[in-house]
Amino acid sequence: MLTALAHDLGLSAGFRVELNDKLTIGRAVDKMLRELRPGSLELEWVTRFVEQRLEESKSWNISYPLNALAEELTKEAYMTNADRLRALPSTVLW
Question: In the structure, what pLDDT confidence band is assigned to residue 84 with cuts at 50, 70 and 90?
Answer without folding.
Answer: confident
